[in-house]
């Protein structure tokens, strides 16, 4: 009995530091936010139990529904874009023979840059007299107010976030491609399969676990977008880029309604959880 217990206890001791950190910075704050959402906690630290009043207020709050719609639209634009860009660059890197490490480092570089720095640079690119409109003027398209038009601001922000964040997902997918046995592709080539047939019938099915992981982390990232919006639009124009996270920021750090901000946060947590479960169902439980 003592011998059988030794290995599990040893393993538990190895993971104990990370488990403690996970409890301190993930589980306990989540439970604290759930409790705070049932109060009217304010900046002075004064609070009283209000039950479900904050949730009733949220259901009747038009700002919440507007921010939820904006967040879902942004997610619908950003997630397919970043997955396609990450998959495309991963496939290209996988085919590169020379200087693969150099190209990988160059493509990963935007991921390690500051969101604030990236936002400032891209805001200049999108300006009326910026780089992009300068290029459009040379081909007689005319200037486009990307940051001032409600129908263009979310796609423009999605492009910025994709440029900033695709590097991490690219490496995940590249690792998945490296794990695919080369003999499968060689056998398919010998049998006369085209490049598209090899990708559709061999590469894509074997890449599903990595794709599922990328889908989940990029979906969570899209629901948590804040830095780019704070730097580039401030939630405008006319709240066209006013996302859930930006709403939580305003409730907590502009109006000092920490209890109500926690309510927004708990609903965001529930929405992300539901979307992740739907993605798991679509991708296929057996593949993840």
TrEMBL record:
Entry keyword annotation includes Endoplasmic reticulum: no
Gene Ontology cellular component annotations, sorted alphabetically: plasma membrane
Transmembrane domains' residue ranges: 12-31, 72-99, 106-126, 152-175, 206-226, 258-278
Gene3D superfamilies (UniProt xref): MetI-like
GO biological process: one example: transmembrane transport
Keywords (A to Z) from UniProt: Cell membrane, Membrane, Transmembrane, Transmembrane helix, Transport
Localisation per UniProt entry: Cell membrane
Membrane topology: Multi-pass membrane protein
Entry annotated with the keyword Nucleus: no
Primary location recorded for the protein, binned into one broad class: membrane
A Pfam entry, by short name: BPD_transp_1
Occurrences of domain ABC transmembrane type-1 (ranges): 68-279
Xref: CDD domains: TM_PBP2
Homology family: Belongs to the binding-protein-dependent transport system permease family.
Listed name of the protein: Sugar ABC transporter permease
Organism this protein belongs to: Nonomuraea terrae
């Amino acid at each position: 009995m003592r011998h059988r217990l030794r290995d599990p206890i040893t393993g538990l001791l190895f993971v104990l530091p990370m488990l403690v950190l996970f409890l301190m910075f993930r589980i306990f704050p989540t439970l604290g936010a759930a409790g705070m959402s049932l109060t009217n906690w304010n900046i002075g630290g004064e609070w009283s139990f209000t039950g479900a009043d904050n949730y009733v207020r949220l259901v009747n709050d038009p700002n919440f529904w507007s921010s939820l719609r904006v967040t879902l639209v942004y997610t619908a634009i950003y997630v397919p874009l970043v997955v396609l860009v990450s998959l495309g660059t991963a496939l290209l890197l996988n085919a590169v023979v020379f200087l693969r490490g150099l190209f990988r480092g160059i493509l990963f570089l935007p991921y390690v840059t500051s969101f604030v720095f990236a936002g400032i640079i891209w805001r200049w690119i999108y300006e009326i007299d910026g780089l992009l409109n300068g290029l459009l003027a040379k081909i007689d398209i005319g200037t486009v107010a990307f940051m001032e038009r409600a129908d263009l601001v979310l796609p423009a922000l999605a492009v910025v976030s994709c440029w900033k964040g695709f590097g991490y997902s690219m490496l995940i997918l590249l690792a998945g491609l490296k794990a695919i046995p080369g003999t499968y592709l060689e056998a398919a080539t010998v049998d006369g399969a085209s490049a598209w047939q090899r990708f559709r019938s061999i590469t894509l099915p074997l890449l599903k676990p990595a794709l599922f992981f990328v889908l989940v982390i990029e979906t969570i990232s899209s629901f948590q977008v804040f830095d780019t919006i704070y730097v580039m639009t401030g939630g405008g124009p006319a709240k066209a880029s006013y996302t859930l996270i930006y709403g939580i920021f305003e409730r907590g750090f502009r109006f000092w309604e920490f209890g109500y901000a926690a309510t927004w946060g708990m609903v965001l947590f529930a929405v992300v959880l539901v979307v992740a479960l739907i993605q798991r169902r679509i991708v296929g439980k057996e593949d993840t």
